[in-house]
Specification:
Blueprint (H helix, E strand, L loop, with lengths): L5 E2 H30 L4 H23 L2 H6 L3 H16 L8 H13 L9 H8 L11 H9 L1 E2 L6 E5 L6 H7 L4 E7 L2 H8 L4 E4 L6 E2 L4 E6 L6 E2 L8 H9 L3 E12 L5 H10 E8 L2 H7 L1 E8 L7 H9 L18 E2 L10 E2 L5 H9 L3 H13 L10 H10 L4 E3 L5 E19 L5 E19 L2 E5 L1
Parallel strand pairs: 2-12, 3-4, 3-7, 4-5, 7-9
Antiparallel strand pairs: 1-8, 6-13, 9-11, 10-11, 14-15, 15-16, 16-17
Helix pairs in contact: 1-2, 1-5, 2-4, 4-5, 7-8, 11-13
Length: about 475
């Protein structure tokens, strides 16, 4: 990894650890102030008590951001310790006189947090490093079979299936195999996008975030995005798996099915909140066997609903569901027909990738009648046309000058006729009286167009004007 970048998860733990230690120390200082004001200034004591309650909420929120990132870097035991500390803080009474144990417990946790890349297990860092940029981890086909088994596809309706980062198109084509559907995918890597062309109905080349795609038109969306984020030298934090989710959901129709595949430690509370606000009937299923051991992936499934705000309890409950992975059911346990796709037909009128490609151009031209009109015009120009009435002398001149009667004239005496227009200058002399009363001659030039027909006949060449 470049020297000017660091792992997002490490920076997050560093920031939250520092904030937790600072908050715990502030709480201890506030408790001492509260003790001093309880008898002398009750109004101030009440304000301090209110501030102390808010600080406790801040500490709980800060600590709750740590367990999943700790799982991401393989520090499972420290993650479990953090959950126990969260439970202790939640039960802690703010009127407790001595805060030293609380402060010490938080500081002990912070001291165990990784301070830089070198303090994290090297094997874990090596595994995660490969996913920083252009990571490609296709969804296992065996797990997709279980997902497909859990979907009811409507009869007599062609459904639209979408994958915003489709890779070679294997996953989406497998999901739509044997089903009346159209498959649409977007892929950043040009080589994989070329491979996807032979498997999917339409493929957009380039970044999904700069593609132009119709909204509310897809019956199901398979989303397995890259999910390692980094902190750049400019200080910007970027979580691609969350951005893919937020920006791809508008393309899913009401009632459409989301299949969101991410590592379980990325199901953070902010992601859970977004899912709860935009989806209903949300379930979580974990991958099994070697696939789960390698990537710790889960499949979050739900049907899109009209956006509505959700409470903290709902988002927290979904986030807590992955804290004990032993209780999360495997994909093989997904019931048959668990989710039904909408029966409403939809047309994908706009699907353009961020980058130009010949296949996309061909698809656009196939939907346009521009070339048909051009070829139709040429066909009419080549057809033999005859006037309804005999032409006048003026009309013959116009047609001859335009070149429409150039060429071979067949008959008993065939001949070739070619018309052209030339400029002709004539002079005219006129005698007039000048202001002095003398007769003078004036010469005027008259310029005009002259029609000339050159005719080659069996008897020789003739020119008519």
């Amino acid at each position: 990894m470049p020297h000017n970048e660091s792992y997002y998860v490490l920076e997050l733990l560093k920031d939250t650890g520092g904030k937790a230690a600072e908050t715990a120390s502030e709480m201890a200082a506030l408790r001492k102030k509260l003790e001093a004001c309880m008898e002398k200034d009750r109004k101030r004591a009440k304000n301090i008590h209110t501030t102390l309650k808010k600080q406790k909420e801040t500490l709980l929120k800060t600590l709750s951001e740590m367990p999943l990132p700790l799982m991401e870097i393989g520090m499972d035991s420290l993650s479990k310790y953090t959950w126990k500390l969260i439970a202790s803080v939640r039960a802690f009474q703010i009127m407790t006189p001595d805060y030293s144990k609380l402060v010490q417990a938080v500081k002990s946790l912070v001291e165990k947090l990784p301070q830089n890349n070198n303090t994290v297990n090297a094997a874990v860092i090596g595994r995660l490093m490969n996913r920083v940029k252009m990571g490609y981890y296709p969804t296992d086909i065996g797990h997709l079979a279980h997902i497909k088994r859990g979907i009811v596809f409507p009869e007599n309706v062609s459904v639209n299936l979408f994958d915003p980062c489709c890779g070679k198109g294997l996953a989406l084509s497998t999901l739509g195999e044997g089903v009346d559907c159209a498959t649409y995918g977007v892929e950043l890597d040009g080589g994989r996008a070329e491979d996807a062309l032979c498997r999917l109905t339409r493929v957009g080349f380039g970044s999904f975030f700069y593609s132009r795609i119709s909204k509310n038109v897809f019956h199901a969306m398979l989303l397995n995005p890259p999910y390692l984020s980094v902190l750049s030298e400019y200080g910007g934090r970027y979580r691609s798996e969350k951005r893919f989710l937020v920006e791809s959901v508008p393309h899913l129709m009401a009632g459409g099915l989301l299949i969101y595949i991410i590592p379980y430690y990325r199901l953070t509370e902010d992601v859970c909140r977004f899912l709860c606000e935009n989806f209903q009937d949300i379930t979580v299923w974990k991958f099994y066997g070697e696939e789960f051991a390698r990537f710790s992936q889960i499949a979050v499934m739900g049907s899109r609903k009209e956006r509505e705000k959700c409470g903290d309890a709902e988002a927290e409950a979904l986030s807590m569901a992955v804290c004990d992975m032993d209780s999360v059911p495997e994909l093989s346990e997904l019931p048959d027909g668990r989710y039904a796709l909408p029966e409403q037909p939809k047309t994908v009128s706009l699907f353009k990738g961020a980058e130009f490609n010949k296949a996309e151009l061909a698809a656009q031209l196939a939907c346009s009648n521009s070339f048909t009109q051009i070829f139709e015009k040429n066909r009419l120009d080549m057809m033999e046309r005859r006037p309804l009435l005999p032409l006048s002398i003026g009309q013959i001149g116009l047609i001859g000058g335009s070149g429409l009667i150039n060429g071979l004239i067949a008959g008993d005496a065939p001949h070739i006729i070619k018309g052209r227009v030339v400029k002709e200058t004539r002079t005219r002399q006129e005698t007039v009286l000048n202001p002095g009363g003398e007769c003078v001659k004036e010469i005027h030039e008259i310029r005009s167009n002259k029609m000339v027909f050159n005719i080659l006949t069996p008897d020789g060449y003739r020119s008519l004007s």
